[in-house]
């Protein structure tokens, strides 16, 4: 696929599937494996002008490639769309001179964020689109009230090695569990062994940034004709679906804006989103959305729960003191850190129980009282809406 025309520009605005173009561009830039995460991040960056941008948290073990995926997406959007930080103090959001209005705050590791009031301030910024903070200051030896305001709206992209986020944080963003897949690791090793250099030029990357800037250069109205059908098809058993559904609509609208040269227009001039726009979004968020409302769980959690079930059926497990995380690691052929983070999630959901729980103790894992979910997506498949 040729990204450049004769004068070196990128006629991306005329391409019928910008996500297919991005998939190939990411691979040419050095990204290996499934490009779903950087494509989701790239799409989310384009929601910066909404009253509540779409925020994304990427969860995964150290060294899995979370930050690499985030940086890969950043290469394809204008540099002034985001501000990258690695750590911040509790009240940094209030006092920082950074301009965060219609921009993204990129946090490379959530562990570098202050807890307590710092997290509360971030939640307010994401939900309300601004921060209003009243404090006491001393002026000429006299105490007086001081009102500090941080103007948004602001989106957040963050990575974390935590197995899960606080529910108040998780409900405000899509949580993408980055797969620690052996095949993905093997593909990365092969790429490193071949010493292949990225084949995407700086000119091409600049053209992608120009495309993004032009796509958001003016306000564009979008109609989603199937929005009510979509609303009728999603479950309402979990309160957070109200926030998530709104974010899904924003992503569909954004896809239509990016493809507007190939979209029909209504009588009032608004562009009409298509099922193809929904299909693009479905491919990127169906699983993280389902995991967010616990309709499904990450594959790693399934693997450790199934391993405990299988080990519990063996005679050797029945006569010993219990099933340890080391036993599980040996059974599925994965390292202890992979098992530990997924066992932690399984315990928190009741899929497993640890009868010898405690720091420094050897786990005694048993099958829990809760059954694994059916692994179905909460979003209807695109073909069902046609």
Gist?
InterPro entries: P-loop_NTPase. The protein has a five-stranded parallel β-sheet with strand order 2-3-6-1-7. Strands 4-5 form a two-stranded antiparallel sheet. A two-stranded parallel sheet has the order 8-9. It has helices at residues 18-28, 36-45, 66-74, 92-95, 117-128, 167-170, 182-194, 202-215, 227-233, 241-258, 275-292, 299-312, 315-319, 325-332, 336-349; strands spanning 56-59, 82-85, 103-107, 130-139, 142-151, 154-160, 174-177, 222-223, 271-272, 352-354, 365-367.
What does this 3D model show about the protein?
Mean pLDDT is 85; it is low at 1-10. The chain has a 5-stranded parallel β-sheet with strand order 2-3-6-1-7. A two-stranded antiparallel ribbon has the order 4-5. It has helices at residues 18-28, 36-45, 66-74, 92-95, 117-128, 167-170, 182-194, 202-215, 227-233, 241-258, 275-292, 299-312, 315-319, 325-332, 336-349; strands at 56-59, 82-85, 103-107, 130-139, 142-151, 154-160, 174-177, 222-223, 271-272, 352-354, 365-367. It folds into 3 domains: 12-213, 3-Layer(aba) Sandwich (Rossmann fold); 218-296, no CATH class; 299-367, Arc Repressor Mutant, subunit A, CATH 1.10.10. α2 crosses α3 (66-74), α2 crosses α11 (275-292) and α14 packs across α15. It has 386 residues and is an alpha/beta fold. Helices cover 42% and strands 14% of the residues. The longest helix has 18 residues, at 241-258.
């Amino acid at each position: 696929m040729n990204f450049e025309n004769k004068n070196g520009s990128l006629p991306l605005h005329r391409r019928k599937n910008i996500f297919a173009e991005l998939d190939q561009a990411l691979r040419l830039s050095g990204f290996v494996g499934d490009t779903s995460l950087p494509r989701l991040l790239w799409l989310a960056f384009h929601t910066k002008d909404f009253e509540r941008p779409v925020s994304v948290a990427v969860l995964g073990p150290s060294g899995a490639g979370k930050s690499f995926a985030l940086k890969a997406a950043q290469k394809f959007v204008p540099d002034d769309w985001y501000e990258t930080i690695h750590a911040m103090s509790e009240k940094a959001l209030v006092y920082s001179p950074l301009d965060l209005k219609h921009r993204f705050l990129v946090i490379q590791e959530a562990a570098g964020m202050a807890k307590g009031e710092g997290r509360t301030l971030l939640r307010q910024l994401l939900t309300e689109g601004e921060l209003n903070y009243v404090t006491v200051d001393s002026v000429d030896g006299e105490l007086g009230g001081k009102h500090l305001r941080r103007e948004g709206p602001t989106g957040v992209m963050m990575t974390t090695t935590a197995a899960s986020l606080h529910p108040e944080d998780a409900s405000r963003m899509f949580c993408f569990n980055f797969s620690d897949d052996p095949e993905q690791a093997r593909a990365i090793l092969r790429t490193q062994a071949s010493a292949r250099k990225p084949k995407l030029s700086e000119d091409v990357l600049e053209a992608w940034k120009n495309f993004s800037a032009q796509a958001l250069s003016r306000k564009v109205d979008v109609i989603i004709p199937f929005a009510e059908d979509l609303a009728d098809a999603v479950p309402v058993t979990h309160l957070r679906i109200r926030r998530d559904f709104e974010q899904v609509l924003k992503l569909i609208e954004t896809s239509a804006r990016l493809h507007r040269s190939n979209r029909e227009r209504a009588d009032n001039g608004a562009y009409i989103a298509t099922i193809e726009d929904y299909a693009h979004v479905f491919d990127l968020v169906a699983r993280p959305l389902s995991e967010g409302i616990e309709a499904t769980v990450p594959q790693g959690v399934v693997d450790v729960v199934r391993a405990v079930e299988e080990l519990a059926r063996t005679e050797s497990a029945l006569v010993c003191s219990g099933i340890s995380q080391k036993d599980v690691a040996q059974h599925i052929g994965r390292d202890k850190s992979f098992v530990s983070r997924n066992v932690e999630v399984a315990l928190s959901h009741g899929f497993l129980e640890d009868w010898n729980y405690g720091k420094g103790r050897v786990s005694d894992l048993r099958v829990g009282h809760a059954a694994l979910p059916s692994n179905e997506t909460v979003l209807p498949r695109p073909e069902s809406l046609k």
